[in-house]
Amino acid sequence: MGTEKHLQFGVFLIDTVLLTAFVCGFYYLMRYISPESVNNIQNIPWLVLVYIIGFVFSYILFPSLIHLRFVKSEAIITRVVYTCFMMLLFISLILVVSRPFANFPRKFLLYSMSAYLVFLMTERLILRKILLRIRANKGNTKTIVLVGNEGTVHHLYEILKTPVYGYHIAGFFYDGECDNDEIASMRLGGVSDIYGWISTHPRVNEIYGYFPKEQQDTINMMSKFCDNHLIRFYYIPAINVFKGNMSISFMEDTPVIARREEPLRKGRNKLIKRVFDIIFSLCVLILVFPWILILVAIMIRIQSPGSIFFLQERTGLDGKIFKCIKFRSMHVNNDADEVQATKDDPRKFPFGDFMRRTNIDEIPQFFNVLVGDMSVVGPRPHMLKHTDEYSKLINHFMVRHFAKPGITGLAQVNGFRGETRYIDQMEGRVKKDIEYIENWTFLLDIKIILKTIANMFGKEEGNAY
Q1: Residue 440 domain-assigned?
Q2: Is position 67 within any domain?
Q3: Which residue, among 347, 371, 380, 363, has the nearest Cα to 297 in the 3D structure?
């Protein structure tokens, strides 16, 4: 197998060939099941060319990620969505410029691009599986050497030795003794021995090494040696001061390490999430909310006269306080801002209990989403009293406020919903909230929304009282 560049070009060629077959096949399929959608299409080669041109431009902006050694399926799928969206824009632009607008094949374009989105996702994931299998069978490998006998080097070794990443670890160079038998068995010599060894083993692609800061001369010498032997050199910093995910960035030429990776701090991700929040909340408020409002208003009037809505101050993004709106699910009482609802809480009226179990009471919060106080998905906002209490009892509790609070969240679809009677339940919720903040993807939001909907109509684990 070739280099990553060759792989990327190979994926592009496969994409192009399959796109040609897809457009032709889809055209004849639509001519059979929906002839009116292809009435304005007479020149099939021209249609295929337009789709290929649109794909090429979108691929330049959003190339495939499947050749990368460390990439998640969610990132591959997200990249496909970006590619198809830009492809749709380019194709539309070409068709508008090249023909009268009256002959624009709107239906065919919409149907074909929707189908191609699924087609390309499937193709890329299959190719990714094939590539991982090839690497697991020692194809498309990189030969690397590790230098040093520190915990960071050992940790990197545990990652890189995974077969599907495609690394052949030739061995270790370090001084002194090593208490790890596996690593000790792979020792090729001391640090100074690497220069002679490399001279007789020219197939090494990369060197990864950790050196104490007082060995700056050794680092410079190693870097220069690698440059002269066409080997990429990677310095491993002592970043194990933190546990879990971290993010390295630069302030001019000075590297700084953030405590955790936060995808939602990136402008593009913020924009994607906000646009989705606005579109999704508008759909719910226009299509669903009016009908639910009528039903809820009637039931509250019958079972617990009073206000339909309930406003409560909650802790939001960066610890800011906002007014969270819900359908009132309890009789009017003085403890609403102090005491959590329990299983047999006498404050609840029957329909209010049903609303809480099915999440219906949360639907007005789409107004909070629309104005920007909340997101569709994120850590659930807590009462101010509970924020104050739990922040003193649970380590990292306030980290959950680095993200905008959500109507549903990763914790809620994993059983940490509703009453938190014991401290370990809240610790579990906080752990999932932080996991969400550190690993956000648009696809993860979609998964959480779908699981929330499924839970509304099925049996859900948790304490939704």
Answers
A1: yes
A2: yes
A3: 363
Q: Is residue 464 part of a domain?
A: no
Whether residue 162 sits in one domain with residue 123: no
Tell whether 207 and 299 lie within a shared domain. no
Give the pLDDT score at 449: 93
Is residue 232 included in any domain, yes or no? yes
301 and 228 within one domain: no
Three-state SS annotation for the chain: CCCHHHHHHHHHHHHHHHHHHHHHHHHHHHHHHCHHHHCCCCCHHHHHHHHHHHHHHHHHHCCCCCCCCCCCHHHHHHHHHHHHHHHHHHHHHHHHHHCCHHHCCHHHHHHHHHHHHHHHHHHHHHHHHHHHHHHHCCCCCEEEEEECCCHHHHHHHHHHCCHHHCEEEEEEECCCCCCCHHHHCCEEECHHHHHHHHHHCCCCCEEEECCCHHHHHHHHHHHHHHHHCCCEEEECCCCCCCCCCCEEEEECCEEEEECCCCHHHCHHHHHHHHHHHHHHHHHHHHHCHHHHHHHHHHHHHHHCCCCCEEEEEEECHHHCEEEEEEECCECCCCCCCCCCCCCCCCCECHHHHHHHHHCHHHCCHHHHHHHCCCEEECCCCCEHHHHHHHHHHCCCHHHHHHCCCEEECCCHHHCCCECCCCHHHHHHHHHHHHHHHHCCCHHHHHHHHHHHHHHHCCCCCCECC
Identity of the amino acid at 330: M
Q: pLDDT at position 380, please?
A: 92
Kind of pairing between the strands at 232-235 and 206-209: parallel
Interatomic CA distance for residues 135 and 164, integer angstroms: 5
Domain limit, last residue, from 136, 156, 179: 136
Q: Do 212 and 329 fall within a single domain? A: no
Question: Would residue 94 be called left, alpha or beta, if left means φ above 0 and alpha means ψ between -120 and 50 degrees?
Answer: alpha
**272 and 369 housed in the same domain:** yes
- Locate 250 and state its tokens: 């630069």
Q: How far apart are CA 341 and CA 353, in angstroms?
A: 10
Which residues of the chain, if any, have pLDDT below 70? 1-3, 99-104, 238-255, 257, 259, 333-346, 418-421, 458-465
Q: How many structural domains is the chain composed of?
A: 3
Q: What pLDDT, on the 0 to 100 scale, is given for residue 418?
A: 60
Q: What are phi and psi of 233, to 5 degrees?
A: -110, 130
Same domain as 146, residue 128 = no
pLDDT value, residue 102: 54
Residues 6 or more apart in contact with residue 24 via CB below 8 angstroms: 44, 48
Q: Domain residues for 180?
A: 142-240
**Which of the listed residues 104, 136, 168 is the one where a domain comes to its end?**
136
